[in-house]
């Protein structure tokens, strides 16, 4: 599981516990998304907020590669909004979606 090098999401521990994940910290939303696209990681979770321009291209590439992309609650990512701030992001392998979202719903 890849997370921000400087601001790992609050849900990191619960995902590690639920999924048995190993954490890899790295910078750049694009680098983290591409780690999942390339198969170097299974999950990218981000809860620190970012702007649409930080995630739009990585999300488009991940979606085109057949990965799951959503908010951390499973709702769709909606772009081109008057307020371009996006509070969170999830990119993961499709076969892990249910496990990841279940773990996130259970809370800390």
UniProtKB/TrEMBL annotation:
GO terms for molecular function: 3'(2'),5'-bisphosphate nucleotidase activity. GO terms for biological process: 3'-phosphoadenosine 5'-phosphosulfate metabolic process; sulfate assimilation. InterPro entries: CysQ/Inositol_MonoPase, Inositol_monophosphatase-like. This is Unannotated protein. It comes from freshwater metagenome. The lineage of its organism: unclassified sequences, metagenomes, ecological metagenomes.
């Amino acid at each position: 599981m890849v997370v921000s090098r400087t601001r790992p999401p609050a849900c990191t521990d619960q995902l590690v516990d639920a999924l048995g994940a190993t954490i890899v910290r790295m910078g750049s939303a694009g680098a983290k998304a591409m780690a999942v696209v390339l198969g170097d990681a299974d999950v990218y979770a981000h809860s620190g907020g970012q702007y649409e321009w930080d995630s739009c291209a990585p999300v488009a590439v991940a979606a085109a590669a057949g990965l799951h992309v959503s908010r951390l609650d499973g709702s769709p990512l909606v772009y081109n909004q008057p307020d371009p701030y996006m509070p969170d992001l999830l990119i993961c392998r499709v076969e892990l979606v249910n496990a990841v979202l279940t773990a996130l719903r259970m809370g800390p």
